[in-house]
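Chain A, query sequence.
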Amino acid sequence: MLRGLVCGRLGPLWMWKALLLFVAIAFAGQLLGIIFSKSSVQPAARSIFSSPDAQGPSLGPCRPHTHIMFLKTHKTASSTVLNMLYRFGEERGLRFALPLGYQLGYPLPFSAHRVKGYRGPRVVEFHIMGNHMRFNKAEVEKVMPADTFYFSIIRDPVALAESSFAYYKEVAPAFRKAKGLGDFADDPGKYYDPRARNNHYARNLLWFDFGMDHNANFSAVLARHGEAVVRQTFKLVLVSEFFDQSMILLRHALCWPLDAVVSFSLNARQQKPDGGAGAALTDGWVGKVRGGRLPAKAPPNLFLTEEQREKLRQWNALDWHLYQAFNRTFWREVAAFGAARMEREVALLRSRREALAGACLRDGGKPVEAHRIRDKTIRPFQSGLVKILGYELQPGLDNGTRMSCLRMIRPEIQYKDTLDAKQFPRAQSPQALPGLQSPKLASDRSFFKLDPSRTGEKGRDPGGRTGEEGPRDWDGSRLLSRNRNDKTRS
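Chain A, predicted structure.
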């Protein structure tokens, strides 16, 4: 009778048996799932920057250098090197000898009071100095510790002249008067006035940046003396045409991990202003050609015959001597390092660069036009005549990886501002720091933050600034184009 009651009112018995079996299976599955999930929990994937490959080949018993002075010469891939110094120092909380604006008083000879936060010799410990300056050893030694490692970078004077002509044509009177670089090379004396401001860009620019008289008449004695002066201070001189080999020598000299000297090709440009078919990228290490601020003007004519190239070597004879001398030294150091060993380490460097590009950069690291970069804070500044390309980060990166990747592609101006804000928080104003110099070049920074054309944005400058203020260098500092006696020559 009970069976009939159940079957009649609550359904057949087989249905209840099936229901109980289903509940039992579900409970067992849930229990097993919890056990399985606990046993299968894996640690979070490590960042590519924490992999063993980040360290590179063994450096032997040495301690990393943290007191470093880099003479940032013009048009030599020095911005890429400065990015490495910025990254290394920021990651380790080191203190930078930053300029009040964006350059350390250039083109005037360097003076210690140009360093933001300088309060007198050895009062504040600075670890890294690397912004543009005209070298002045006595003043640098007031800022940097006695155990500082000094190094710099040079470039073939003909290639340097090509880049300098393209970039400074509107501000160097000697270049502005010439129709093209070949025209200038045929008769430099026709256009060059040693008394004219900014003409230092037109002759022996390396010699000038090293703090010597670039207008001196060439002699073998003078050239050897200048070479000796450079050798006495700078323990390593890199060669931009052999950038990867230079990075290996620098890594071993500084006792740094491999990732510290791995960089992406910064400041690549489109040769054709409108892009499209036929647009090409120059070598990012040495191809940082940027023109003036007036977009209506055509890019300068840089064509040179072999005869004109030789004339430029003669015109820049002091630079040519430096380049030849330190190029020979460079290859002696490579030979001492070991040719086969250098080849292996360069291969590792390039492989690591490719791996980081794949992890960090969208589309495998293909450079894009500035206005296409969604993150406006990493758009490279534009010259107006040519398009300077930048990068986009991969989406979905974890915070640590994203920060490391961002450091590798952050443009120089924005990076300097980032470091400046860390060392001098807004809450601690410059006036509140005793002995701190007033920021005379603060207008340079506001210029860049307001000028949309420099970051690939369209529209009028919200600050109301116009080109009537006069031409500016890449960092916003004014470049005086009027002719007058330059009393700052050494």
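Confidence is low (pLDDT under 50) at residues 34-44, 273-296, 427-476, 479-490. The first strand starts at residue 68 and ends at 71.
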